[in-house]
Design goal:
Strand content: 15-25%
Oligomer: single chain
Number of strands: 17
Strand order of the largest sheet: 13-12-11-14-15-17-16
Number of helices: 10
């Protein structure tokens, strides 16, 4: 059922114009005046003053002035009401809906923040959990949608432990969960009940959009709905992209997004689990680390020796994709890996921080930009990520570079060199845990 945008009549006391001020004072003194709406003229030259519906049983008509009870059919919000925050408006509308049933328990259960996706509001999982809400039925969701200026409502649950980070979202009002976002001039559409969307990754999407990728071939091993694939194709001018994704709902959104942005002819979508490689292609040193609780799809990624650049945008760790990334890099010239990982940073009193790692001399890329963009559901209490890296980040980057170097040498039977170009702090993922991206240049060592 769709939310209706129909004015709801409000009760009011009407009196002659000369008595309007006295009636206002009378109602204010008894806390009966409904300050959410303006006074309005009614037929007969009288003035109607809105009163609180939940207090009608306390209303006593004053004997010293002429007045009568009326209904204002098209109430006009007062100036104070128009200045209300969305959260205040939501609380007020719900309090009006419940009347005397309103309680402190219900007020604590009303959300103060949510995600907006166009005309769809996505509520947090801990909102409207109290039992009394269930008795209201569809009227609850229609009231919430109307108060927040939305047509559709959904509520989040915990992310499903299925290896695909599938959201557990319930559609409360509306016919479907398809929404559209525009980031940096790129259009993303997806079904909020089937796919994740992280506004906290906007800084990394902006950064990859500025990388010099003209003429390059990209392999995106965890494409999702195209979070990073699209900035590479639309803004960074990559010539072609191979995208890998095993979630069928994300693949549907990815195909739509490629078409929405006019780059479908420069991308091939590989639907399946990119970890399924033949034993001959997989370095022995990583074979013990490829166990997964998720059943593999009937699919084997056949790509090899094609990529100038590989994006590994999976957290908390993309380690299972490292052998695949090594295999798809061009074996003659190598390329750059963008490795995402959650790194724990132990608190310490006033630690000495190492400077940002700069690109090697002569390397084609340097440090990227840094910044923070908050979303409706994120940013509160977010740790500021400065322009310096932590010692733990540098140790992780160096260990990863050494590991990748060994995988490449074992895979190709010749020495390779790896160079740390940049470490990007994307966001604070949890207390003392940071989502990082390592830009790692990988080149074969040419014989002397």
């Amino acid at each position: 059922m769709e939310a209706r945008d129909v004015p709801i009549p409000v009760p009011a006391l009407a009196t002659e114009l000369q008595f309007a001020q006295r009636l206002r004072e009378h109602l204010e003194e008894r806390q009966l005046l409904d300050g959410r709406y303006r006074l309005q003229e009614v037929p007969g030259g009288w003035v109607a003053l809105p009163v609180l519906e939940e207090k009608l049983d306390q209303l006593r008509l004053p004997q010293e002035m002429p007045c009568r009870l009326v209904q204002i059919q098209d109430p006009v919000p007062s100036r104070a009401a128009r200045r209300r925050t969305p959260a205040q408006k939501l609380r007020d509308e719900l309090q009006r809906l419940l009347g005397e049933s309103w309680s402190e328990e219900l007020e604590r259960d009303v959300p103060h923040a949510w995600q907006r996706h166009g005309d769809l509001i996505l509520l947090s999982e801990d909102s409207f959990g109290a039992a009394p809400w269930e008795k209201l039925g569809p009227a609850l969701w229609e009231t919430v949608a109307s108060a927040l200026g939305a047509q559709r409502l959904a509520r989040r649950g915990r992310v499903l432990p299925d290896g695909m980070r599938t959201p557990n979202v319930t559609l409360l009002l509306g016919q479907d969960g398809w929404v559209e976002h525009v980031d940096n001039g790129i259009r993303y559409t997806f079904d909020v009940t089937k796919c994740m969307f992280s506004p906290g990754n906007i800084t990394e999407k902006l950064r990859v959009a500025s990388l010099p990728c003209s003429g390059e071939v990209l392999v995106d091993l965890y494409a999702g709905i195209g979070y990073f694939t699209l900035p590479y194709l639309v803004h960074a001018a990559a010539a072609f992209a191979h995208t890998c994704e095993w979630n069928s709902h994300a693949v549907e959104a990815l195909r739509r997004n490629l078409a929405l942005n006019g780059v479908q002819d420069r991308c091939r979508v590989h639907h399946g689990d990119n970890r399924q490689v033949s034993s001959a292609d997989e370095p022995r040193s990583l074979q013990p680390h490829t166990a997964s609780s998720s059943p593999p799809l009937s699919f084997q990624l056949e790509l090899r020796d094609v990529a100038d650049r590989v994006n590994l945008g999976l957290i908390p760790s993309s380690e299972e994709g490292w052998p695949v990334a090594c295999r798809v890099l061009k074996k003659g010239t190598g390329g750059v890996l963008h490795i995402h990982h959650n790194v724990e940073t132990l608190p310490a009193p006033a630690p000495r921080q190492a400077p940002v790692l700069q690109a090697e001399r002569g390397s084609p890329e340097g440090a990227g930009s840094d910044g923070e963009v908050q979303s409706p559901m994120e940013g509160s209490g977010k740790e500021t990520l400065g322009a310096r890296i932590r010692p733990e980040w540098q140790r992780w980057a160096e260990a990863t570079a050494a590991r990748i170097q060994g995988l490449l040498a074992e895979l190709h039977g010749q020495p390779w060199r790896t160079s740390i170009l940049h470490i990007e702090a994307v966001k604070s993922y949890a207390p003392h845990v940071h989502h990082l991206v390592l830009d790692l240049e990988c080149r074969p060592t040419l014989p002397a």
